Amino acid sequence: MIGATLDRIDRADPLRRRAVTAPAIFPAASHQRVLTMGLVDGTALSDSADRLSRMDAAARDRLAEVLMSTVIEQILVYGVFHADLHPGNVLLREDGTLGMIDFGAVGVIERSRRQHLTALLLAALSENDIAAVDALLLIVEAPADLDVEAFRHDVGVVLTTEHLRSDAHASIFTRMVDVIRQHRLALPGELASAFRSFATLEGCLRVIVDDFDMAGRALALMPTLLRRTLSLSRMATDLQANAVIGMARLEQIPRRLDALLTGAEKGSIGITLRGEDGRDLRGLLDRATAEIASTLVSIAAVVLAVVLIVSGGGPVLGGSITLFAVLGAGIGLFGFLGLLRIVRRTFARKD
């Protein structure tokens, strides 16, 4: 798959043809557990300091830019990329081109997430912390108690400091992953691989050109990648696919409406409420309804007791004690005990 993406990149930009290659595969000598590939003549970037020093500055800069654009295009446009691209896995070949080896880790990102990742990269490269956080929240699983403002602040600090940093102390992508972990966000595995590839790519570029500005160069590359990602033909195909899906859903509406009306006519429609943990909420609703009813009855009993005692009517039972006063005292005691029971349950649940 890596070779196929490199072939497509070569066809799209003939000036980069064969500048970055992958070894040929021998299917007859390969199977599920063994991948047999051709020999790549050259030395690893990590061991090529002497050869790189003999190249002129323009050639080294061109080599770094081609490697950067190729890897970023693999990730954002085609979604298949080398997920372990450290300087030991990129060879400087005898003809001055680059070759990739060791394909034990290959990342695959589906198209929807590639679009979100493109938005994140564009925001990060332009130091737009608000857009970067919005894009991040589309591709990570955030906890319910996430402090979005604190998260945005930490992301903004990383973007600002990395744009002003001139040394190769740490990659912006490594620091972004650290912020994501600090805020307990779940980063999908394939996106973590993409972040790691961006970080290791930056390391490879700094081996070729020690002061290579990946952020500035990648930002200039983004319009070209966006045109390939959001081509008119692809957008037209997407509209057609969405229209077909919409028509299929519209065709199902009469059947579902008929089933709903039939269920209502037969009295067989039921509603099941479940919480986030999957538990049935009917018991909880029943208890809440019972508590509300008990509260209303207790309040009504207390009010009725006050009315009976204050009115003072009814037969006289002895002295100044009337029947209504006795009934009011009994009903009031019942209402007071009911309210006391409800208050005790409320505080017991809080404890």
Structural notes for this entry:
This protein is of the alpha+beta class. The protein folds into two domains: 2-231, no CATH class; 282-350. It has twelve helices and eight strands. It has a four-stranded mixed beta sheet with strand order 1-5-4-2. Helix 3 (57-78) runs antiparallel to helix 8 (189-208), helix 5 packs across helix 6 (148-164) and helix 6 (148-164) packs antiparallel against helix 7. It is elongated, with a radius of gyration of 35 Å. The model has no long low-confidence stretch (mean pLDDT 81).
- The total strand number stands at 8
Proportion of helical residues:
55-70%
Total number of domains = 2
Name the average pLDDT: 81
Going by helix content, strand content and strand pairing, the class is alpha+beta
Order of helices and strands: HEEHHEEEEHHHHHHHHEEH
- Uncertain segments are none
Broad shape? elongated
Q: How far apart, in Å, are the first and last alpha carbons?
A: 59 Å
The percent range for strand residues is 5-15%
Largest sheet: 4 strands, mixed
- Strand numbers in spatial order across the main sheet: 1-5-4-2
Oligomer: single chain
Per DSSP, the total helix count is 12
Radius of gyration: 35 Å
